[in-house]
Design brief:
Helices cover 60% and strands 12% of the residues. By secondary structure, it is an alpha+beta fold. About 2% of the residues have low confidence.
């Protein structure tokens, strides 16, 4: 009984100690995970915001490159028909750009030569429009590219109609992008500039899309601590400079977090490419609720483990000795049989000797297994290729044990890969062929004079050959390596009925540079997408990547994205052909081409998501990485990316065509309501029957376009006509109600008061008293 109590006490002590350690480590790990997850969430918002702002920036750059823009900035005003037509065409293009990009709220161009401002609707002279003189303030040499103005700034710039259709939120600041013309000019030497007003609601909407806890505590602020975007419009343009964490937060750059001990909260931040900071505030209360849950879970598990330990202790103590006695008896019988059936003393010593022999035999068998020749060879080759062995004298005994024969100097490494791997059947077939490839390579190397080598399979699709030479001439050794590769390829094609590609690394004299040659060979074999199948790839065939041509590739990719967003199918096809031609001239590897294509498709899918057609391409996007990996040529990659790009452009064109038709329908409904407001039966059902649509569709379409439902719009039209009749005619109120389409007099009174804040009688008396 005492032994059982001791066991139970030890179990409880051990379980309590383990639970305490797990609690401490779990709390730390949980806090670390909470911090990391919040940083990741904030980084996602920041990336999406930067992507949106960069898209606007690229759109403006493409617009400033259009024909006719130079004439506006550099040519004086004139009344000629050609000049007026060019300005009108430029305004139409500006309106199209704004219509295609929902994140641009308004746009204007300023010409320093003419001192004029042009918007999508009109052209103004700053001398005539004093309220727009703030435009000249951006000609200061210290003006940033991205800036913001307070809610008091008047940025209508003649876009009153546009602003009325998209009113500001209360207290909304003005987020601006300023681009000088020409594009390479600064503020002082520019001929003008484009000023783009960003839709602040597009930024604050990103906070809601992710739907994580505490989205009210996310905001965008500038370098002085002013809030530029927030889910709560009442906080916009307020300053956080007076808060306890502001000084440290404003001084930091990049991304990270800091502690606000006064308010017991964590301040996460991420610096945008604009220089502004995205801030997310999390209180410690959120973390403490998680730790409390972990505490309860660990306490419950500890109690359960104590109960299990007590039950196990009781069960084991009852059933322990009999099985142990039977086991010892069996071992004694085995020892007696080994001695030939003789009894005698010293059975326990002999029993110990038998057990020791069993374990020693198992250890020796395991050691022989690990030290077998194939395993030893693989280990030594892996150390050579990864830089684990750098001195030939120290590695020579190990090479001899593994059966590897190499000269003490002059090495080059070959990477070997079978072609058309997508056509292979089972993965085990590839392993068998790679094993045969290594054996054939070693046999060919041993048959050539002045050459020694060893081959090994490094992964599921590649083998590696280390060649060493007796000759000290680099040129002759590389020629010998090429002859070896040609002989190997011929043998594999003749006997295995397969083709391979061979990448040859550089030639090095010292043993420690085998790693460098191996890395070069891998780079060569990765370029077989450029050289084709069944080829020998060296630095002469591949050459070096041209940084200037790489820049051209990325610039063409950016231009292609802009064209896709504009849904220009023919131009997109031309740019895609040009992109792949530039990539081939830049000598990009297959891995780089796959990444370039994935980035291109990912950014075009972002355009699809913004336009509301992303759901159509999600399945294709998931399957695309595998398709690109199996492509054997640039042409196949071009076709895979081209199909998705063409489908996206077609979807965008259809979406925009649908929007234009919807806008025309809503405008027709509004015009009909303005003319036939006096029909008492005018309703959504009536309009749906008139246009051959469902009432729900008409109602939703009208609300999406006008931001109000049709009933409220009709009530506003009728209220305005009633006000006109009240002031211009002496007719009675019930007659006014009938003339504007009301059959219920109380409905007329209720809707009139809702619109004007007073009854029709009060409205007539008030305005007639003012006229007198």
């Amino acid at each position: 009984m005492k032994v059982q109590l001791i066991y139970i006490g030890l179990f409880i002590l051990i379980i309590g100690f383990i639970a305490a350690i797990n609690y401490t480590s779990s709390i730390r790990q949980l806090e670390s995970q909470v911090i990391e997850s919040n940083q990741n969430v904030l980084a996602q918002i920041s990336k999406r915001m930067d992507s949106m702002l960069q898209e606007v920036n690229l759109t403006v750059i493409n617009y400033l490159r259009m024909p006719g823009v130079q004439a506006f900035f550099e040519t004086p005003s004139s009344g000629s028909s050609s000049y007026l037509l060019s300005v009108s065409a430029l305004q139409d293009q500006l309106g199209s750009v704004m219509g295609a990009n929902f994140n641009m709220k308004s746009a204007m161009l300023y010409s320093r030569v003419k001192d004029e401002v042009m918007t999508a609707s009109d052209v103004y002279s700053l001398k005539e429009r004093k309220e727009l003189e703030w435009v000249r303030s951006f000609l200061d040499s210290k003006s940033p590219k991205w800036t913001a103005l307070g809610p008091e700034a008047d940025l209508s710039g003649g876009n009153a109609a546009y602003d009325a259709a998209s009113p500001d939120r209360p207290g909304e600041c003005q987020i601006l992008l300023v681009h000088y013309y020409p594009l390479n000019a600064g503020p002082a030497d520019s001929k003008g500039m484009a000023i783009i007003r960003i839709n602040e609601k597009s930024i604050s909407a990103l906070f809601e899309d992710l739907q994580f806890s505490g989205s009210d505590n996310v905001f965008l602020m500038d370098g002085s601590g002013r809030i530029l975007s927030h889910k709560n419009p009442g906080l916009i343009w307020q300053s956080v400079a007076d808060r306890s964490y502001s000084r440290e937060l404003l001084a930091r750059q990049g991304r990270g977090y800091l502690m606000d001990k006064g308010n017991r909260s964590l301040i996460f931040y991420d610096t945008s490419y604009t220089g502004w900071k995205l801030v997310y505030i999390v209180s410690e209360r959120q973390i403490s609720t998680l730790t409390l849950t972990v505490r309860y879970i660990l306490a419950g598990l500890a109690c359960a483990m104590v109960l299990v330990a007590v039950a196990a202790s009781l069960f084991i103590n009852r059933r322990w000795f009999a099985p142990m006695e039977r086991f010892v008896g069996k071992l004694e019988e085995m020892a007696v049989r080994r001695r030939g059936g003789q009894g005698g003393g010293g059975s326990y010593q002999e029993l110990e000797l038998e057990i020791r022999q069993v374990f020693t035999g198992y250890y020796d068998a395991e050691k022989r297994l690990h030290e077998s020749l194939p395993a030893r060879k693989l280990q030594i080759m892996f150390e050579l290729l990864t830089g684990g062995r750098t001195r030939y004298q120290a590695a020579e005994p190990l090479l001899e044990q593994a059966g590897i024969r190499l000269y003490p100097a002059h090495y080059t490494v070959l990477a070997m890969e079978f072609d058309y791997t997508a056509d292979w059947g089972k993965p085990g077939d590839m392993n068998l062929f790679l094993y045969g490839l290594c054996n054939v390579a070693e046999e060919i190397a041993s048959s050539l004079e002045g050459m020694k080598g060893a081959a090994v399979q490094m992964n599921g699709y590649q083998a590696v050959m280390v060649l060493s030479f007796a000759d000290s001439s680099e040129a002759r050794n590389l020629q010998a390596a090429r002859r070896f590769a040609e002989a190997l390829m011929s043998y594999i094609e003749a006997c295995f009925k397969r083709t391979i590609c061979v990448g040859i690394g550089g030639h090095y004299t010292d043993f420690g540079s085998i790693k460098t040659s191996y890395q070069e060979a891998l780079r060569m074999i990765s370029c077989k997408i450029l050289t084709g199948q069944n080829t020998i790839i060296t630095r002469d065939e591949v050459g070096n990547w041209d940084n200037r041509r790489l820049v051209e590739v990325f610039e063409t990719a950016d231009t292609l994205l802009g064209v896709v967003r504009q849904a220009q199918a023919e131009r997109a096809g031309e740019l895609l052909e040009e992109l792949f031609a530039q990539a081939e001239r830049a000598r990009l590897s297959k891995e780089m081409m796959v990444q370039l294509c994935l980035q291109l498709v990912l950014r075009t899918l972002q355009t699809a998501e913004d336009a509301g057609v992303g759901e159509l391409f999600r399945a294709e996007h998931k399957a695309l990485p595998g398709s690109l990996e199996h492509c054997g040529s640039l042409k196949e990659m071009r076709e895979a990316v081209g199909v998705m790009t063409a489908q996206l452009i077609a979807a965008l064109q259809e979406k925009r065509s649908s929007r234009r038709k919807s806008a025309e329908l809503v405008e027709s409904v509004m015009a009909y309501a303005a003319e036939h407001y006096n029909q008492s039966d005018l309703s959504v059902n009536f309009l749906a029957e008139r246009y051959g649509l469902t009432p729900n569709y008409v109602s939703k379409l009208f609300k999406d376009y006008t931001k109000c439902n049709f009933v409220d719009y009709l009530a506003q039209v009728r209220a305005k006509e009633a006000a006109r009749l009240l002031l211009s005619t002496p007719i009675k109120l019930d007659e006014v109600a009938l003339q504007i389409g009301y059959t219920n007099f109380s409905s007329f009174l209720r809707n009139f008061k809702k619109h004007y804040g007073m009854t029709p009688t009060e409205y007539r008396q008030l305005h007639r008293a003012e006229d007198s």
